[in-house]
Amino acid sequence: MRFQTSDIDTYQQSKAYVDTMLVPLLPVALDDDLRQKVAMGEYISLVTMEMEKQFRGRLMQLPPLMYLSSESVTEIGERLGVWADAFKKDGKNHVIWMTSDPALKQLENQVPGLLLWIPHLPIEHLDPNYRSKTIRDQMQQLLPDVMAEWRKEDSL
Amino acid sequence: MSEKNHNVSRRQFLTYTLMGVGGFMGAAMVMPMVRFAVDPILQADAAGDMNELTALSDLTEEPQAFSLTYEVEDGWVTQTMEDTVWAYLSGDEVVALSPTCTHLGCTVNFGGDENNPDQFFCPCHFGRFEIDGTNVPGTPPTEPLHRYDTEIRDGVIYVGRPQPQQ
Ligand code: FES
């Protein structure tokens, strides 16, 4: 489900079934590396959308969580911890963080929930048909990780 | 300035304004009616659209996932959509099912659950469906998988939009 009014009624009626938050992480910096950041952000948004499509009955996809590229990884990790605590209080058992940022790879085993680090493929140059296929293939590769996460009763 | 020197008196002003507003409101009410009346004529074709799925010879008795592309017109924008369709042969009959779980909309897979290799499986809340789409009682879905109308022309399968089956 998405964070939009058209999905909220369903969410409220079936809250108990939606035990996972899906959060894309977006680095922002208006520096020389801007192009790369935007491309990473776009890629992650597309993979996140595909993930939502596949698992919409169990996930609530939130708007992207932005951070400054100048922030330290420790700070970012702590912030994710705060969010995870809040989700837990609301009865959620899982969070899936989505990122393409190489700097965040080291958080993989540190933050609560499942941090999926997905290397950015330069799909912006691809033909649209091939692009959606690439995204779907990427998604297929992530499935086992998501399944493994869900096998843990409660990971927060 | 006194009231008398106005070219348009307050009363007249109000009358004109209300007429204007009333006119708009009237138009706002009539326009959709006209549209409803005309629209179906314009869209009759779209509803009956059949899209090519695959060659009949590709089907087996075991459901396989095929991808279906079709165009959706939303106002002036035409979008290409892509869906997955599970299709198989049941005797001579072509069965084409939508992979959208009727519980809360996750995507089901055939044989996704090791213990039930002959059923469709939804990983979200372990919903299960028989091969013909019938929901397995005791799992969350309360309705069968939706099914596509199919048509075969020159050895090619065409499908419409998925419909609930009861
Ligand atoms: S969405 Fe398929 S079982 Fe709940």
Quick take:
With 156 residues, chain A is of the alpha/beta class. Chain A has helices at 5-13, 34-55, 73-89, 128-151, and strands at 20-28, 59-61, 65-68, 94-99, 114-117.
Structure description:
The complex is a heterodimer of chains A (156) and B (166). Chain A has helices at residues 5-13, 34-55, 73-89, 128-151; strands at 20-28, 59-61, 65-68, 94-99, 114-117. By secondary structure, chain A is of the alpha/beta class. In chain A, strand 1 (20-28), helix 2 (34-55) and strand 2 (59-61) form a beta-alpha-beta unit. In chain A, helix 2 (34-55) crosses helix 4. The longest helix of chain A has 24 residues, at 128-151. Chain A is globular and about 45 Å long. The two termini of chain A are 20 Å apart. Chain B is an alpha+beta fold. Chain B contains 1 helix and 9 strands. In chain B, strand 2 (64-74) and strand 3 form a beta hairpin. Chain B starts with 9 loop residues before the first helix and ends with a strand. Classes of the chains: A alpha/beta (156), B alpha+beta (166). Chain A binds chain B through residues 1, 10, 14, 17-18, 53-58, 128-129, 132, 147, 150, and chain B through 80, 82, 101, 103-107, 122-125, 140. Residues 101, 103-106, 122, 124-125, 127, 140-141 of chain B line the site of FE2/S2 (inorganic) cluster (FES).
